[in-house]
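Repro:
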Amino acid sequence: MPSVTTKRPADASTAIEVLRAHSLATLAQQELERRIISGEIAAGTKLNEVDMATTLGISRGPVREAFSALAQAGLVRVEKNRGVFVRQVSVEEANEFYEVRVALEGLIGQLAARRIAIDEIEALRAVVRRMHLTQKSRKADEYFALNVEFHDLLARAARNNALLAQYRGIVNQLDLYRRATIAHGTDHIPTSTAEHEAIIEAVAARDEQRAQALLGEHVLASRARLHAALGAPAPRP
């Protein structure tokens, strides 16, 4: 009996190619976002489509889509006839991000105090223990990473995906500013660590109002410390 050869329909083949291209674009976006947020690709850097495609081992199409998604996320800017650049956040823009972050962090504190699990509290305490170790070494990059980890853990503990998405969007853009200025001193590390400890205790005690207030105060204090380190003017009330 002759074998039967089954041909894949053209539309199915096309769908697979579209899915593959979409997946590659998503992976490219995630990898570029990681490199930008980590500071591996510095603010102001021009991103070359061909170079990035070669580096990531993919075609230019997914990279182009990734650039578009990163532009929508506020991490890169597209300049006509010039190309794509990692965004540089000004002091004025950073002040606006901080104002939004105060509100978001306050809500995160309130909801996390209500919903956080015991193992998440212990995870936060473990991060703060590592912060104490970083105080001795005074390594700004390490402390920056721990600070990001702490606040993201807390945001996830709030159990609100819409809030988490908004928070990460603001923080990713704000981190472009903070990452560019990270080398401007580490004297604030002990004070910042103490603030994180107080936040944990408020959340662990299920004190929603105190957690909300402490997180808002922490964001404003962080902004003030950064402005002082940079010699930037204080934001308007």
